[in-house]
Recover the amino acids of this structure.
């Protein structure tokens, strides 16, 4: 950072960090809207966004040199220590450049790689989203934010791997990658939460300054293991490596980007990021070192035996990530330098090799090395590029891979900890280096040399000019860095290293020639041994099946699937079978039982005292009323099975008793509403009765009842009695206690003063608790729509289709009398009552208007008025029939409902215009001719909304059900017609 | 008064719960309705039972607050009654649809051996 530059510039530069998140995600959303055939335009667009990010990153370089840090904070949930903090230091900068630069190249490559039938906008939208998530991981300045972006990369990579979702391998590979990395990510989240707890902050700067605190914390081990689970799964380290080869079903640009340069690097990025605060302990050395070493060796060994080009590259990637992990495990600053350097080097040569493999696949139609050969004759340019890149992968001198590999060998020789793992490291490193030479040589030799391929799916030729440009660019980078490292990558690498190591940055030299020393000898041993090994195994490999001997029997995928099946299917099934049931009754019984127990336990433990029974205060009339009510309830319970209509009538009796109770006990509003709802409910259930199956009581049933059924009924009866008794007891106890001071006085005092109405219940509903009421009418609307939607798809049972018995008798009567037309009796049935019902419509409308207008001051209101009006409509349906009504009245319940909801919401929003909170009301009285003086509060408009919505919802529910009997004969006719045609 | 109303709530609850545990959908819908009467009366009762004290003020003034019963439980119950109707309607339609699809009015959508 230049000290001359003011704080303002730094702040401004900090704000630019948001570009790295906003541009890719916004671009991703926009890219979706490109037409699918516009490959070029979409690629230009995505490439421009990646290039923009790259240029911004390049421009920010001066701010991060010599330990400078850019920050951009947006408060998110500051109380919880969660902030949207972006933070860029040298290391993050290096990664940002890597992600954006390779991003640009991959877009260019993908433009030519994707086939005409692939939806390119979807690919590039996902690609940009991935780039944004990856940049988020790199630039997060807050541990939680880091975890969020981390999971985003897992999710987007799932979608990218499964891009060709018609391919089962792609789907399986995507699912496996998501399961493994997602599980790891969740573990990591827990680890990071614990870490934040130790440090007392989630801010990365604070965390990075608290190394000793973390390493000495008793929670260090759990944090270490959990965070490592995240990092090692993401970087495909043994034993979690198996997902990466299966992710190769992704389109090659995805592999070139995600599985070489970016996503799998997130794991080692995290290891390097937290290196200053977590590394250096013995546990770190053992866990990370063991995972890294075994991955390094096994990955390289497995890579030799792959027949799929991309499979070879995938295992090679695993092995190289293992190398980086080993370097980070050593805990020495020099090793950390080598690790960061190798991250960059591996990204360049591996991305170019994936692209080369993609070209070979694209131009020949196969990636199987057994089928390929002699391609240098057809595509010499690609062959040369691939040769240079794979020489870099093998660690041949004068290429970038050589330098970082030398540094690795030098570090492997050093003794860091006196234990067997440390002693083994140089040998394992040399062996792995040898394997690397073998598989690199194999990649080149089996594809480009040897005899020309036969019966390939396509005749091979060079790819389009621009498809090769990204590879040329990357290979050039390999060469330049390999020959003159100190003046090309040197300064940038230094910037990155300083930001990780700070004061403990060691002095190191990036040069090709360090003299004749042990690492160089190890390199030559590896080179010579690797070449020798390849020529020994060449004939075997040319025809062998895929996978290394012995290990090939051990399928990571199969183990993974077994575990998944056991966990998510077998165990879940066993649990369900042993503890669960799909039957409703046991579940209900269990629920009631739990509720009764939960209600009884506190009473038992808190010395519940039964209040004295006051028999004196019984009003005989009230007692008589409830004697009838109780009889109705019990009767309904008994008759509900065999005499549905009787049960419905008795239910109405109980409802009427409830209604009268409200009248008696000073609740006129409730009484009005209850009475009206009672009518509507009865009509509703009456309409439904027709569609239920016939049930004829078997007189002998009682004798035949098995003991089991008797027992079950007795048990339910006892449970019900206990539940009822308990509720009665609690109700009695509560009601006989003196009333404590409640919020009632608040509402009573303010109802008139502030709400402008004397009916306190209504004022509460439309004014004080108006927001609750808005929610409740919204629920009502949702229920009505659900009922409507369910009935649209209603298919009645065949035995309910025919006309009811009474109508059949009436029609038969008409048929027998020549002077009558069929249907006359049905139409004339209850003729006088139906005329009266027709004439009731204006009366009921008047009643509804009356209830509505007086609502604010006297019992009534929108709810009651809405239901009353809907009764008016349903009476018309009952008297005239569906068709008669709909020819004469405009019934638009959906429209009424939406108007109601809009009016209610608009009333609330209206108060914003006057600078008051949502749903603040204003009241005054106005005088209208005829009607007289009535309260006109803004709450009245709200109540109007309630009225309209309740009316619409009730009418919609009732009419939707009533329409079924019109639809049913049509359905019957259709069924008969199709039956005739079939015959 | 209290003793009668609490007995009534108890009987309504018991009948409702018993019907909830029955196998036929129609029994369950009647049971739910009975149970909602019980619950509404229970909540209403929490405001204590008063005769001739509706929470309707005189125009102009509040006066003695002791003359009015508690309006809060009433406001709660009023919306509960309407929502209860909506719930009954929804359940009725689900019941009919279930009968249409499965051919039975058993709550599990298929006949059990004996219930």
């Amino acid at each position: 950072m230049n000290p001359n530059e003011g704080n303002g510039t730094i702040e401004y530069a900090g704000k630019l960090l948001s570009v790295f998140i906003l541009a890719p995600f916004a671009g991703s959303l926009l890219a979706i809207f490109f037409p699918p055939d516009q490959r070029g335009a979409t690629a230009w667009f995505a490439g421009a966004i990646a290039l923009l990010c790259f240029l911004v990153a390049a421009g920010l370089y001066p701010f991060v040199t010599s330990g400078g840090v850019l920050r951009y904070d947006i408060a998110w949930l500051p109380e919880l220590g969660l902030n949207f903090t972006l933070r860029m230091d040298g290391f993050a900068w290096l990664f940002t450049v890597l992600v954006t630069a390779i991003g640009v190249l991959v877009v260019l490559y993908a433009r030519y790689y994707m086939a005409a039938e692939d939806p390119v906008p979807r690919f590039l939208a996902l690609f940009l989203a991935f780039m944004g998530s990856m940049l988020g991981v790199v630039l997060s300045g807050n541990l939680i934010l880091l975890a969020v972006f981390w999971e985003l990369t897992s999710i987007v990579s799932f979608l990218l791997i499964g891009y060709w979702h018609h391919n089962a391998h792609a789907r399986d590979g995507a699912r496996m990658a998501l399961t493994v990395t997602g599980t790891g990510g969740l573990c990591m989240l827990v680890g990071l939460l614990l870490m934040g707890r130790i440090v007392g902050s989630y801010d990365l700067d604070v965390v990075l300054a608290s190394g000793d605190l973390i390493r000495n914390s008793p929670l260090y081990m759990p944090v270490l293991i959990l965070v490592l689970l995240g990092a090692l799964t993401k970087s495909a380290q043994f034993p979690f490596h198996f997902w990466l080869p299966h992710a190769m079903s992704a389109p090659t640009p995805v592999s070139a980007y995600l599985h070489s340069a970016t996503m799998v690097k997130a794991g080692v990025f995290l290891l390097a990021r937290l290196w200053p605060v977590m590394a250096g302990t013995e546990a770190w050395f053992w866990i990370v070192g063991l995972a890294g070493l075994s991955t390094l060796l096994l990955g390289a060994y497995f890579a030799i035996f792959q027949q799929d080009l991309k499979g070879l590259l995938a295992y090679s990637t695993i092995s190289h990530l293992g190398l980086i992990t080993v370097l980070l495990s050593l805990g020495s600053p020099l090793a950390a330098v080598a690790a960061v350097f190798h991250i960059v080097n591996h990204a360049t040569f591996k991305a170019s090799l994936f692209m080369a493999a993609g070209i070979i696949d694209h131009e020949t139609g196969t990636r199987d090395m057994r089928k390929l050969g002699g391609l240098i004759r057809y595509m010499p340019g690609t062959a040369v590029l691939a040769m240079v890149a794979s020489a870099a992968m093998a660690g041949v001198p004068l290429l970038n891979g050589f330098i970082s590999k030398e540094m690795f060998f030098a570090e492997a020789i050093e003794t860091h900890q006196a234990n067997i793992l440390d002693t083994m490291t140089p040998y394992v490193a040399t062996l792995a280096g040898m394997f690397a030479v073998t598989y690199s040589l194999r990649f080149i030799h089996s594809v480009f040399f040897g005899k020309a391929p036969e019966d390939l799916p396509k005749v091979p030729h060079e790819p389009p000019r621009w498809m090769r440009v990204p590879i040329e660019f990357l290979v050039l980078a390999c060469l330049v860095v390999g020959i003159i490292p100190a003046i090309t990558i040197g300064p940038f690498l230094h910037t990155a290293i300083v930001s990780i190591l700070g004061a403990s940055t060691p002095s190191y030299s990036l040069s090709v020639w360090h003299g004749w020393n042990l690492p160089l000898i190890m390199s030559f041993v590896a080179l010579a041994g690797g070449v020798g090994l390849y020529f020994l195994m060449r004939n075997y490999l040319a025809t062998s099946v895929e996978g290394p001997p012995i290990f090939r029997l051990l399928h990571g995928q199969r183990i993974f699937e077994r575990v998944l099946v056991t966990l998510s299917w077998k165990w879940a099934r066993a649990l369900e079978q042993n503890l669960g049931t799909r039957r409703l009754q046991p579940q209900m019984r269990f629920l009631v039982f739990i509720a009764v127990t939960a209600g009884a336990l506190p009473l038992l433990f808190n010395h519940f005292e039964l209040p004295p029974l006051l028999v004196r205060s019984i009003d005989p009339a009230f007692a008589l009323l409830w004697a009838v009510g109780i009889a109705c309830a019990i009767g309904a319970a008994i008759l509900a099975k065999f005499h549905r209509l009787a049960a419905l009538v008795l239910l109405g009796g109980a409802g009427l008793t409830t209604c009268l109770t409200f009248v008696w006990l000073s609740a006129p509003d409730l009484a009005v509403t209850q009475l009206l709802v009672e009518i509507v409910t009865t009509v509703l259930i009456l309409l439904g009765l027709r569609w239920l199956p016939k049930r004829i009581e078997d007189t002998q049933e009682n004798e035949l009842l098995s003991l089991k059924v008797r027992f079950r009924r007795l048990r339910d009866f006892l449970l019900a009695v206990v539940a009822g008794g308990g509720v009665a007891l609690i109700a009695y106890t509560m009601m006989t206690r003196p009333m404590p001071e409640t919020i009632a006085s608040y509402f009573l005092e303010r109802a008139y003063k502030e709400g402008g109405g004397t009916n306190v219940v209504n004022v509460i509903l439309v004014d004080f608790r108006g927001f609750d009421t808005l929610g409740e009418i919204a629920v009502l609307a949702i229920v009505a729509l659900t009922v409507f939607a369910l009935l649209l798809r209603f298919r009645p049972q065949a035995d309910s289709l025919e006309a009811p018995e009474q109508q059949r008798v009436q029609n038969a009567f008409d048929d027998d009398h020549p002077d009558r037309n069929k249907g006359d009796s049905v139409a004339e049935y209850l003729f006088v009552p139906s005329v009266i019902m027709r004439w009731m419509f204006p009366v009921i409308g008047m009643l509804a208007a009356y209830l509505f207008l007086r609502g604010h001051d006297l019992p009534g209101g929108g709810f009651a008025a809405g239901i009353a009006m809907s009764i008016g409509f349903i009476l018309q349906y009952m008297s005239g029939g569906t068709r008669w009504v709909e020819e004469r009245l405009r019934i638009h319940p959906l429209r009424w409902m939406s108007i109601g909801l809009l009016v209610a919401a608009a009333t609330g929003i209206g108060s914003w215009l006057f600078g008051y909170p949502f749903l603040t009301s204003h009241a005054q009285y106005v005088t209208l001719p005829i009607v007289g003086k009535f309260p006109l509060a803004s709450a009245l408009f709200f109540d109007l909304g309630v009225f309209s919505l309740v009316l619409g919802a009730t009418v919609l529910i009732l009419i939707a059900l009533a329409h079924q009997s019109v639809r049913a004969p049509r359905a019957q006719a259709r069924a008969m017609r199709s039956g005739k045609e079939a015959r | 008064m209290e003793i009668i109303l609490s007995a009534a709530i108890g009987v309504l609850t018991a009948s409702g719960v018993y019907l909830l545990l029955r196998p036929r959908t129609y029994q369950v819908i009647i049971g739910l309705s009975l149970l909602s009467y019980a619950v509404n009366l229970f909540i209403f009762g929490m405001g204590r039972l008063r005769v001739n004290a509706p929470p309707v003020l005189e125009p102009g003034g509040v006066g003695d607050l002791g003359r009015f019963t508690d309006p809060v439980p009433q406001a709660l119950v009023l919306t509960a009654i309407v929502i209860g109707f909506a719930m009954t309607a929804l359940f009725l339609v689900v019941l009919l649809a279930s009968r249409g699809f499965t051919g039975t009015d058993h709550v599990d959508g298929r006949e059990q051996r004996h219930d």
Residues 280-549 of chain A form one domain. Chain A is about 75% helix and 5% strand. Chain A touches chain B through 119 residues (CB under 8 Å).
